[in-house]
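Standup notes, protein team

Yesterday: finished cleaning the Methylophaga thalassica set.
Today: M18 family aminopeptidase structure.
Blockers: none.

Input for M18 family aminopeptidase:
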Amino acid sequence: MTLTMKYTPSDFNPGLCDFLDASPTPYHAVASMQTLLEDNGFTQLHEADSWGQLDAGQYFVIRQASIIAFTLNGQELVSSGIRMVGAHTDSPCLKVKPKPEKVKQTLLQLGVEVYGGALLNPWFDRDLSLAGRVSYENAQGQIEQVIIDFKEAIATIPSLAIHLDREVNQNRNINPQLHLPPILAQVDDGDSLDFRALLEQQCRQQYPDINIGRVLDYEMCFYDTQKAAVIGLSADFISSARLDNLLSCYIGLQALLAADKTRPALLVCNDHEEVGSQSVSGAQGTFLQSVLQRLAMNTEAYQRMVEQSMMISADNAHAIHPNYADRHDAEHGPLLNKGPVIKTNANQRYATSSQTSAIFRQLCQQHNVPVQDFVVRTDMACGSTIGPITSSHIGVKTIDIGLPTFAMHSIRELAGSQDAVMLCKVLTAYFNQK
């Protein structure tokens, strides 16, 4: 089904919520995006194939849990450049270890490792499921991969009762090794679980037409089964897991689909931002650079194209919290539902410059979208994004922006229900900009 962009929250946010629910892992997020792209006429390219000189059209390419989608209109890229938007597909979570099976006090648990800078307290007392990618051996002895999702709540991490920790509300310390293994079932003495056999069973259930052999390995993570929702007395908020940064992925994709295709445009969504981006599919890898080089065809054309291009790095921004307002610089505290945020840092933790921020401000003004600013308190450390990595690696002028969010890196985050359509409007105009 071809999607028509509608710039109202009531039309935009249901699709956003569906995307968030369908994307419990980066692999599922890329699969969701692939479906939307194919439904809208984009053609998949493969890195192992020869591309040659691509005709005007719409294309995408996938590298593991990262995806690049772009449109070409026949213009010479050395003179037009490419308008680019970047985001990331991963979120903090609990990943299952290679030898995870544990049985304690007749309870079956799985050992987990914390991925990224997760806020751990909210993971307790949640209905958890499992999703991820599985590598298996087929009947011919070849290794293939599928993505799976148990969907149902199959696990939980119970809190310790306050009666056994009277200081819990003043000083709760979480030891990830000891306190985070989720409970999956109660078993009889001597019983256990072969986790790979469980994954094999799930693979066969989800893919009955595929000859699934022995499961060799996996990348599986737990996630909260509570669905994304628009909440609040006046439907002011979006509450969901993985808003950081699937919110930006979805907005960037919808803007690319809604663009008028009159100039070259590109969306890149990288994996592994939450752990430093240094991977084959991360922003520090070669994915974006190699795609751009193939589009330019030669080194000089590539350099000229990059000089004419621009990148908007879209990642969430810290909204000023009413209960913790002192954690913000008073003049730079973004508010929910008051528009996208320009993120600036003197030490280049964000890639924003006066040149790129001026371009973005003008775009917002031209389309009646309010714009806000975020600068971290001078006495606090600043986070970062794919913006500085991409800017330095590719050599493209870049701005870091995002939408105001509460509870970043929690198992459930909160954003404004009006902000997504405002940013989509601006990014669509950016892709169309001559």
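Follow-up from PR in the comments: The mean pLDDT is 94.
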